[in-house]
C-alpha cells in the first residue's frame, strides 16, 4: 500500500473515479442508453423504445450481422491456420530465419489498415486475380490484417512451451507428425483459442480496410453503423453497435469456454 | 518480457499492434500450458521404460534448445515448411504493397515519373494532414501515458474493492472497435447532445458552448480514451512484478508517496511506458475509424486522406503517394517500438 493516510486514499479513489467513469464507462453506457431511446438532449435519454433493436435485427442490419459473422469466422480461421503454421515453421528455423519470418508476419500490424485496404484493392482489381466486387476481397483483407495477431500470439505460446513433453514423446518413439498432433497442438490449444477470439473480435470491428473495398452486397456491421450515423440516425446506429458488441462478447465468452475445458485436459 | 505474472496481463512486447487485445486476456489460460496434470512422461515415468527400447527420436538429436523444438513432420527442411505461409503473405500483402508503390509513380497521364509525389507534396491539404496526424498522435500518446500511468498506479498500489473488476473492464473495452468511442462522444458533446442540452436547459441560451467535437480536440479526446488501456495493460503487468518490499522499505525510511513514485516506481515502469507509448503512437498515426466518425471536414489525417483521395476522388496515384508516406512513418516508428520493447524485455 503506497498511501497510508486514509483521507489521502479516499481522495485518490475519488480522483480515479472522476477520471475513469466519464472516460471509459460513460461511452459504453451512452451507446447502450441511446440505443433504447428516441431523444437525448438532457441528462437522461427520453422516449424509451425498442424500435431501434427491431430495425437492428432484421432486413439490412440482419444481413450485415451475418456478413460480419461469416467474414470474421472465415478470416480468423484462415488466419489461425496460416499464423500457426508460420509459428510452428519458425521454431524450426535458425535464429536469422526466425527473425525474418517474425518481422514479415508482424508487418501488417504496423502498416495502416487503410493502406492494407488500398493495397488489396489495387492488387485484386487487376488480373491475374480479380476479386474486386466479390466478398472474397473483404475476407482477404481481414485475413491479412488479423494473421499478424494470430502468429504473434501462437509463437509467443510456443516460446513458453516446455520442449520436454515433445522430447519425451519422441524419445518414446513417436514420429514428429504424431508428436505435433497429440502433444504440441493439444498443449497449444488454449493459445489457439485465445488467438481465434482475438482475431474474431478484431475482424468484427474492422472498419478502415473494409471501407476501402466492400462491395455493395457485402456490408459488414461497422460499415452499416457508419452509414447510419453519417445520415444522422445516431440512435439506430447505437442499436446496431450494441448488437455488434453483444455478438463479439458472446462469441468471445464461448471461445473462452473451449479454452477452459482444454486447459483441464 | 514474457508474461511473468501468469495472470494473463500480457507483456508490452507482444508486438502485436493490439497485442494484448482484450480478447486474449481476461480469461487467458489461467494455467501455464505445462501445468496440466498429464501422466507426465518426464517425471519418473520414463525410468520404467525397458532400457533396450530404441530411441528413434529426431528431437533428442539436436544438442541446442532451438533444434530440440523440431516438431514438424516429414523430412522436408525447415525452410520448406516456412514457405507456404510466406508465399501466401507475399501474395496477399507484400505484392499488393509493391503495387501501391508502383502506382504511386505512375501518374494517370501514363509513364513513370515522380510527378504524383511532387503534386501531393505541393498540396496544402497534404501538408496540413501530415501536420495534423503527427501532432495528434504525439499529443494523444502523451495524454495516454500520463493518464494510463496515473490510473494504473491507483489500481496497482492503492487498490480498492473492485480494482480487479476495473482491470478486467479495461480488457473488455479493448475488444470493441475504436469508432464506438466517437459515436458515444457524439451523444455527449454533439451539437444537440447531453452537455449542450444541459447548458441550454440551465442558461436558456440558444446553443451550447461545446463545439470541439468536430475539431482536432474531439479526435484527441476520443484517441486518448480509446488508447489509454493500451498503456495501462503493460504498466499493470510491470507493476505486478514490482517487489512491494521496496515500497515498504522506502516508506519506512521516511519517503512520502510522490517520492516513492518518482524514485522507485517510475524507473521500474519506464520500459513498459516506452513500449506502450510507442505502440500507441503508431496506432494513433494509423487511426481511421475515430476520425471518420467525427465527420469533421476540418480534421484530415493521413489515413483519412488516403481514403478520400482513393474512394471519393478516385485519384489513385495520389492516394498511393500518401499511403507510401504513411507506411514509411508508421513502419519506421514500429521498428523503433520493437527495438525498445525487445531491449526492455531482455
From TrEMBL, chain A:
Lyase found in the keyword field: no
Topological relation to the membrane, as annotated: Multi-pass membrane protein
Matching CDD domains: TM_PBP2 (cd06261)
Residue ranges of coiled coil: none
Keyword Transport: yes
Subcellular location: Cell inner membrane; Cell membrane
Keywords: Cell inner membrane, Cell membrane, Membrane, Transmembrane, Transmembrane helix, Transport
Superkingdom of source: Bacteria
UniProt xrefs under InterPro entries: MetI-like (IPR000515), MetI-like_sf (IPR035906)
Chief localization: membrane
Name of the molecule in the record: ABC transporter permease subunit
Organism: Streptomyces doudnae
